[in-house]
Amino acid sequence: MYICVFWVKSVRNGKRISSREALRKASRVLRHRYEHLLLVFSCHNPTIVQHNVYEDAVAAGGEFGILEGRSFALIHPIVMSGLFVYTLYAGYLGWQWRRVRTIQNEINELKKEVKPVPVTPEGTPAEPPKPSPVEAKIQQLTEERKELIKGSYKDRHFNAGSILLGFGVFEAIFGGLNTWFRTGKLFPGPHLFAGAGITVLWAAAAALVPAMQKGSETARSLHIALNTLNVILFIWQIPTGIDIVFKVFEFANWP
């Protein structure tokens, strides 16, 4: 209403103003009247003034204050970027631990190919044995396995997976909450659905650990497959995440 009044007055005075200028003048009038009413009511209820000051200081521009700001909005992409790199690291540790187990199977298979050394009736070798290529390969794999065992990849992979599960699930939920704080709603789309899928895959992969500890090769293969799919989803949603970051810089304010 005030916008129309200012615009009509400007036309009557022969100095037409833009709708933006009319809106600015109307806002000043409304704010002046609001402050006047606030002063009157504060005489009867001082908490009104206290609440208004607190709201201006902490929640300037939004109901949830800093939770709606750019700082909190950028926590999710920063943490998830780190978790993506950490996911690749955890996968490397898991693959090395798998190598510890599979390399022993290779050694056992190669030992079956080693030909027995002929011996004399006295039980001594008929001639000095020459190292065969198979035996050299066995020796190489044995040394490699010793080095892998020294790396403690089993414990490191387990610890990395636990950290990834805990922080990943927490940050996935935090990302949705932050969107709600800033906009009052969620936006169903590729990024949201991919993030939910990644969270489910984290939980499903972790649920296979007891069966893996009992030696189930099916559980181990499924664990690898789920985490591979997890990485693919992670990579696929990076572009949509970058788009959201641009929107945060466009629409959200510091802090």
From TrEMBL:
The keyword Phosphoprotein does not apply. Keywords: Membrane, Transmembrane, Transmembrane helix. The keyword Transport does not apply. The chain crosses the membrane at residues 74-95, 158-180, 192-212, 224-246. Pfam families: DUF4079. This is Uncharacterized protein. It comes from Capsicum annuum.
